Amino acid sequence: MDSKKGSSPKAEGSKERGLVHVWQAGSCSVTPERLPGWGERTVLQAALGVKHGVLLTEDGAVYSFGALPWRSAPAEACPSSPVLEHALAGQCVVAVAAGSFHSGAVTEGGVAYMWGENSAGQCAVANQPRVPEPSAVSIADSETSPSLAVRIVQLACGEEHTLALSISREIWAWGTGCQLGLMTTTFPVTKPQKVEHLAGRVVLQVACGAFHSLALVQCPPSQKPVPERCNQCSQLLITMTDKEDHVIISDSHCCPLGVTLAESQAENQASTAISPSTETRDSLGEVFESTGVQHDLAVANKLNVGHVHTTSGNAIPSPPDIIGTTETSAGSIPSDPAAPAGSELAQKLSDPSTRENSENHEKPVPSQPLVEEAVPNLHSPPTTSTSALNSLVVSCASAVGVRVAATYEAGALSLKKVMNFYSTAPCEPGAQAGGSSIGPEGLKDSREEQVKQESMQGKKSSSLVDIREEESEGGSRRLSLPGLLSQVSPRLLRKAARVKTRTVVLTPTYSGEADALLPSLRTELGYISRVAAGKDSYLALVDKNIMGYIASLHELAATERRFYSKLSDIKSQILRPLLSLENLGTASTVQLLQEVASRFSKLCYLIGQHGASLSSFLQGVKEARSLVILKHASLFLDSYTEYCTSITHFLVMGGFQLLAKPAIDFLNKNQELLQDLSEVTDENMQLIEILNTLFFLPTRRLHNYAEVLLKLATCFEVTSPEYQKLQDSSSCYESLALHLGRKRKEAEYTLGFWKTFPGKMTDSLRKPERRLLCESSNRALSLQHAGRFSVNWFILFNDALVHAQFSTHHVFPLATIWAEPLSEEAGAVNGLKITTPEEQFTLISSTPQEKTKWLRALSQAVDQALRGASEHPPYGGGSSVQRQEPPISRSAKYTFYKDPRLKDATYDGRWFSGKPHGRGVLKWPDGKMYSGMFRNGLEDGYGEYRIPNKALSKEDHYVGHWKEGKMCGQGVYSYASGEVFEGCFQDNMRHGHGLLRSGKLTSSSPSMFIGQWVMDKKSGYGVFDDITRGEKYMGMWQDDACQGNGVVVTQFGLYYEGNFHLNKMMGNGVLLSEDDTIYEGEFSDDWTLSGKGTLTMPNGDYIEGYFSGEWGSGIKITGTYFKPSLYESDKDKPKVFRKLGNLAVPADEKWKAVFDECWRQLGCESPGQGEVWKAWDNIAVALTANRRQHRDSPEILSRSQTQTLESLEFIPQHVGAFSVEKYDDIKKYLIKACDTPLHPLGRLVETLVAVYRMTYVGVGANRRLLQEAVKEIKSYLKRIFQLVRFLFPELPEEGSTIPLSAPLPTERKSFCTGKSDSRSESPEPEPGYVVTSSGLLLPVLLPRLYPPLFMLYALENDREEDIYWECVLRLNKQPDIALLGFLGVQRKFWPVTLSILGETKKVLPTTKDACFASAVECLQQISTTFTPSDKLKVIQQTFEEISQGVLASLQEDFLWSMDDLFPVFLYVVLRARIRNLGSEVHLIEDLMDPYLQHGEQGIMFTTLKACYYQIQREKLN
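User: That's the sequence. What structure does it adopt?
Assistant: C-alpha cells below.
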C-alpha cells in the first residue's frame, strides 16, 4: 500500500507488492530475477514485446525497458534500467499494451498514446517509420455531427496492427494486414477506422496475436435452452462464414422474424453459464480464468480470426481448473453496462490502478447483463478430441463468464501445442492444468499457459449495479463467474470492484499432477499477481506475503469462489428444477418457495459478484479498507438476513413437507446429490433434515468472514484505524451469525408447536412471520375467575397474545398490551394484570418463577413489537440494550371490535396504559375521522373532525377544541350545507359566543348572525344581518327568535327600536324614517302600526291618536293634529329625539357572553370572582398551548411575534407604592397582550372589534346608531378595566390619582390671563396622573374601532359640516393679510416677515398660506390621530406654535387674553382646512376624560369648538 493511500503500519507492505521478476525462455532452469535497475515502485501492470516491455506503476507512470531502437538518442536505444516515458508525465495512465515492436497506453481520459516501430502504421502516424515518444492518437467518429473524439478503454497490439475498444463498445483499428477486420486492401491504415463488421454489437474485449485478432461480443439474453434450428425460421442457429482471410463463427442467429437468440447449442446443457456483459480492457491482458469453460460462448458470439485455419465442431473442451489451484479469484464479473454503471465500467476497465474517479463518462454501454449459474457437471472430464477451432476458442477466447484468453503469436507458439495443453488436463475441481509429461513439452505448455493467461488481459469490472437475473440454460462450465445482481450500491462498482490486474498464483494447492517446476516460483517469489510473455522472455509481478496478509486475502477469494460454486450448484440443480415442476403445492406455498429462491438467487449473485470483485481487488494495491465486505458490510448483512428470514418463514409454514408429490419425488430422486451438497455424512438422515441443513448452509459463511477479517486485523497495529475497522466488522458478522442461528431455532420451535396445535385454529393463526415465544398448554397459566370447565390457553407470539378457548380464540396485538405484576396485597398470588384497549383480565401463574418467566417474555415481546424490524439485529458488537419493561406511553395502531362508539374504528397514535392518550388519528369505516389530541381514551384538546354527508356528497368539518370526547371550547364548524359557525361549543352544541354565516358562498352569504348561543340556539344579545332583505337586527334573542328589546335598521334609512316577540315587532316602539318623520306607539307586526301612538313630522307638526296599517303603504289614522309652532313657548314641543335608545338593549347587556368567556379563561366563574394567581397560571397555559397548537400555521404567529409571546409569559410584579412607572409597565403589557389573539385579553379585544364592526358596518352604518356606538365603546372600556384591575389588583380605581415620583416641570404660563388669575386664588390640587379606563385602554381599542365609529360621526354631522366646509372654501380664497383683517386679528399679531427655508421674506398683501404656517400644519395632524387625548395634544401643540410665532414678532413676553387669541386661532383653523372638523370635535367631546374638561386642554378644546360653530355663522355676516 503506498503512502498516498495512508498505508497501514506495515509500511514495508507497500515495498513488497508489485515486484517485477523476469526470466528467459528456453533455458533449462527457470530462475526469475529482479528486473535490473528497477527500484521498489509497485507495478500494477506489465506488457512484453519481442525485445522490450512496458511497466505501469500505481501512480500512473509508464516505464519502458529492453531494446528501444526507436529512441532518438543512441544511449537510450538499449538502456540499462527502465526509463520513464516523459511524454506521458502528468497523464494518469490506466492501461498499457505492447506489440512486437511498439507500445501503447490509455489515459484516464480515454486518450490512446502510441510509440515505437511504425513501419506498418501500427502507431497511427503517417510517413514516419518510427515514433520515438508516446504520441496521442486522434480517433474521431465522423458519423456524428460534429465529429466527436472517441474515448478509448482498451488497447491491444499485434506485430503490425493495433486495436482500440471505445467506451461505446466499438472497435477501431489501424496498421497493416487483414487482421484489422477493415473493408480495405490499402495498407498501411494510419488513421484509425471503425470495424464495421461488428457495428451494432456490444464488444466487450479485444485481443491481438501477432497476426490475428479476436473480439469478445455480448450476445442477447436467452431464456430457454435453444434448439439447433430456429423454431420460427428453421435456420441453423450456429453459423460459420468463411471469408477470404478470416472465419466468423456466430452463435447469435438473428431471426428474420424478429427474434434474436443468443445461446449456443452445447453437448452438456444441464447447467447454465453466467455471461453478464463485462467491461474488459487492457492490452496483452490477463485471462479471466475460472474453473471450467462454458460451453455456450454466451458472450463471445463472434470471433474474428485472422490467419487461423479452423475446422468446424461444436464441442468445446473445458479447460483445466486453473483457478482452483491458484489462490486467485475467478475474475471480475462483468458489470451491467446498460445501467449507469456501464459507463463507470468502461472507465474501470480502463483503469488497472486504484483510481476511482470514474464519474465522467458520456455514454453508457448498451449491453444487457445475462446471469446464469454454475455448471452441474463439476467432475466430468472435458472431451479430449477437440478441433483446432475449439482449441483456438479456448485459448484465444475462452469465455468463462465473459473471459477471453488470446494466444499471442510471437514466433513459435503453435495452436497445436495450445490445444494439447488444454486437452490433456485432468480437470478435477481445483486441479492445476499442466502437461502430463514434465518434459520440454510440459514446460512449454506451462509457458503457454502463462501466455494464455496473460496475453489477453481481460479486465472485468464487477458491477453490482442494476442487476437483472436472466437464467439461461445450456452450456457447461464449472466455477462460473457470477452474473449481475440487483439492488446493489453503485459505489461498489467504483470502489469495490475496481478493475485491477489478475492475481494468479501459478502453484497447485492440492493437485499432485502439476508441473514440478511451478512450486519453485511460489517458494522463491511469493504470490504472483500477474505474468506476461514476450517472444523469449517472461515477466511476473509478485506480492510478498508479510504476516500472512496476502495469504489471507487469497484464502478469502478462493473460499468465496468455492462457496459461490456451491450456491450455484444448489440453485441450478435443486432450486431451478424444483420451481420448474408443475403442481408444486398451494399458491401460498409456491409463493414462499419463490421468495426463498429469489433471496437465495440474490445472495448467490452477491457472492459471485464478490468473488469477482476480490479478483479485481487482488490486482490492485490491496488495501484492507477497500475490501467490499468491509466498506459495504451492510449489503452482505442485509442479504444474509433477508435470505435467512425467507427460509425461516418457509420453515414455519411447514417447509418442504408442504410441497406436493411431484416435488417430493424430485427431491427423493436427488437425495444423494442433496447429501453431497449439504455435506451431510449421516446416511440415515431424513430428507427434510438434509434439506433444512442444505438451505441453512449459507449462514455458516458468516463465521468464515468473521475469521478472515480477524486474521487480517492481526496484520495491523492495534492502534491503527484499519485494525479497529476490521475488528468491528468481524464482530458484526459473528453476531449476525449467532442471531441467525437463534432465528432458526425459533422457527423450528414454532414449527413443532403448530404440529400439536388444533387444526382449525392453526389455519387462521399460522403466519410466515409469526414465531412462538411461550404457551400455557402445561396449565402453568390460568385466567382468574374462569369457569370450572372452561379451557383457557394462552399463547404468546412475537406479534400477538392469543387467548384460545375450545373452538374460539381472540388475538391481542402486542403493541397494545400492557402487562404488570399484581402485588400480593391485591389478593392475586402470582397474578399478572393484562390491559388491552378494550379488555382487562388477570392471569394467575402456578409458581412465582412461572410468573416471572411470563412477565419477562411478555415485556420483551411487547418491547420488540414496538421497536419493530426484529429480523435485523443491531450490527455492531452485541445486541442493543434490552429495556427492563416496555414504555407505558407508546405509539401503536389498533382497530376496536367491542366498544359501541368506536366499533370497527381504527386508531393510530399515542397510548397510555391501554387508552388513546396524546396525538392520534381515529377513522371509522363510514368515513368519519378525528385527528388531534386524546386524553384517557377520549378526544380532548385540539382536534379536527370530519363527517361525510352522503346526501350532499360533501362533509361536515370541525376544527377546534374538545373535552371528554365532545366538542367544547373554541372551534370552527363548516357544515356540508355551506354554513360556517365560528365560536364556542359545549357538549357538541353551539354554546356561548359565536358567528354563523349562512349561504352557498361565504363571500356573498345571504345572512350572518353574531351573538350568544345557548344549547345550540340563539339566545341573549345578538346581531343578525339579513343581507338579502337589507336589514340588520341588534337585540335580544330566545330560542332562535328575536324576543325582547331590539333595534332594526334598513338600507333605506328606516330605524326601529322597541319590543319584539317571536321575530316580529310587537308592543311599543319608535320608528324613524330617513326624513326624520317619527312614529312612537304600538306595533303588531313588522313595520305594521296598530294601536295608540304619535306621529311627528320633520317640521314639528304631530298627530296623536290610533294608527293601523303598514309603514309606507297607507296608514289609517283616528286622532288629533297639532301645530306646535302656534304655541308661544317651546315647552310643549315633543322631545322625541332625546328618547332614542331607551327601548334598545343597554350597552352593558351587550356581548356578555364574550366577557364571560374571557373571565372563564382566567378561571373565574363570574366577573371578579377568583384567584389572581390562578388567572395568571391560566394565561401562561393558554399561551403555551396555543403556541404549540399553532406551530403549523405561521400566519398566526407572524401577527404576534414569538418574542411578544415570550415577554407575555413574565408577569409584571409590583412591590411597594404604586407609581407612574408601574402604571406604564401595565400599559405596555396590555398593548402587547391585546396584540396577540393567543392571549385571553387579546382574544377578547379581537372578538369585540369583530362584533363592533359587524354591528356598525354596512347596513349598520346608520347615523341614528351613533349614540349606541359611543355607549358601546364606553361599556367596553368599563368592563375591560374591571378585568385589568382583577389581574393587577394594585391598580387604583377609575379617577384616582397616582402621585408623580419626580416633581412636574415648572408650570408653563397659561395662555389665558383669566385662567391664571382663578388658579392663583383656588387651592392647587395635588399634581399627579389620573387613572382612567379610557386613558389606559382607548389607545389599544380605539384605533381598531375607529373606521366604523368615525363613519357614524360623519353621517350624523353631515349637514352642518357641509355648511362649515362651504364657508372654509369661501374664506380661504383671501390672501393672508386680508383674512387676518377680516377675522379681526389685532395688527400687532400680524407677522411682518417670514422665514421660508432660511430666507427672510416680507409679508406682502398678496402673500397666501404663509402666516402661522407651522401652527396650521400642526393642527392638520388632528385627522391622523385616534384617541381624544392624542387629538387634544395636537390642539395644545397648535396653540404653542401660535405663541412661538407671535413671540418672535413681538420680541417681548406677553399673556394671551381670550379676545386676542380667538381670532388668531380662527385663522389657523380656517387655513388648516380640516374636512370633518365637526366629527372630530364631537368625537373628542363624547370620549374625552371628564377630568380634562376644566383643565388647560379643556379650554383649548372649547376654543376649537367655538371656532367650528363661528365658521358656520360667518356665512351670515
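The longest strand covers residues 938-949.
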